[in-house]
Amino acid sequence: MSRPVLAILGVLALVVGVVIGIGAGALGSPSSQPAAVVETPSPISTAAPAPTADAPSPPATPSAPPTPEPTPTPEPTPTPEPTPELVPAPLTGEPVTRAVANRHVVAVMIDDLWAARPQMGLSEADVVWHAPAEGGIPRYMALFQSRYPTRIGPVRSTRLYYVGWAADWNAVLVHAGGSPQAIGFLATSQGRGKAVYNADWSRHLYRVTFRAAPHNLYSDRKEFRKIPRSVGAKPVKDQAPVWSFAPDAPLEARPEGGTIVVPYLANRVTYKYNRATNTYRRSVSAEGKQYDVGVKPKARIAPRNVIVMKVTFVPIGDKKHRLDGHITGSGPAWISTNGITVKGTWKKKDFTSPTRFYGPDGKAVTLTIGQTFIQVVTKSTRITIKDGVVPEPAPTADAG
What we know:
Elements: H1 3-27, E1 86-88, E2 95-97, H2 98-101, E3 106-110, E4 127-134, E5 137-144, E6 151-152, H3 160-166, E7 172-175, H4 180-186, E8 197-200, E9 206-207, E10 217-220, H5 221-224, H6 227-230, E11 244-246, E12 256-263, E13 268-274, E14 279-284, E15 288-289, E16 291-292, E17 299-300, E18 305-315, E19 323-326, E20 329-337, E21 340-348, E22 356-358, E23 366-368, E24 372-378, E25 384-389
Parallel strand pairs: 3-7, 4-24, 7-8, 11-23, 18-24
Antiparallel strand pairs: 1-2, 3-5, 4-5, 6-10, 9-10, 12-13, 12-25, 13-14, 14-15, 16-17, 18-19, 18-20, 20-21, 21-22
């Protein structure tokens, strides 16, 4: 082995020895050095060591955006129904649709013998005529246009003067037979639309079981609305009213009390004016307060206008003591509305012209909007009319 190599190996051995000596001195012997205490970390502690100032913070985890609430789908806006056009009803002045105002007037003969009371349909009529029929025993003729009756009856026979009053409106006349004069007139073209439409013994009438014949012939709204078409009566376009109407007088102008008494051979009719409702509450004979039992609840008969007119009646000379009335021309009339009565005149130019009413000044009277009852009596009948008194206004305290 050469001398340079040996020199290198010697140096390496010397270095290794120095290193081993230093390590042994650092460790020391077991007897001279205390045992090292080794701290074991607690298994409960899981906290990560606090980052040093130089350690960068971990990037923030971005949170998920909130889920937006669903937007409700808007409901479609309904198309508004068009407001129907309203016009004054020709017989009452009440606001009705044009289709109702153009309906053909239907007149119905209604019994008034004691066995026929209480009647049905009178409270729903626009105009009611009440006049002598059999020797002074009265009978009704009710006119319908603004509304059709819920139920109506008992239906009875007609007379020629009732036909004339129905002709005021070219009405459909519903009846069950009649006097020879009436039947003869209705059998002509006058009863086929020239004066009236004849609905004698209409197939839309029927017998009821709760009344004995001949007081048991009735109809109802379902059948009633078929009657004009069954006799060929069509709607009347732009039917003009015969009378003038105005709203109720203000309460302070209405009187307190007032009565109208109209006697017939087999009925005594009494009206008592009611200031609050501006109506004339009707009572008849022994029955007292008159009700329409064809509606529920039963309705008190209480028109807004009452007219009493005197007519010349003459017997026709038959065994049933039927009458004929002179209803054309003119005669005295008492017109009561808003609790006040004026004496005036009725006029009817000819058999098919409308009956009109005039005040003491000769001008056409103005009725109150609503139902009208017309009481027709013989010229010798004594009627009693007493108006009430308008109350004095309550005194007001002096302003101080």
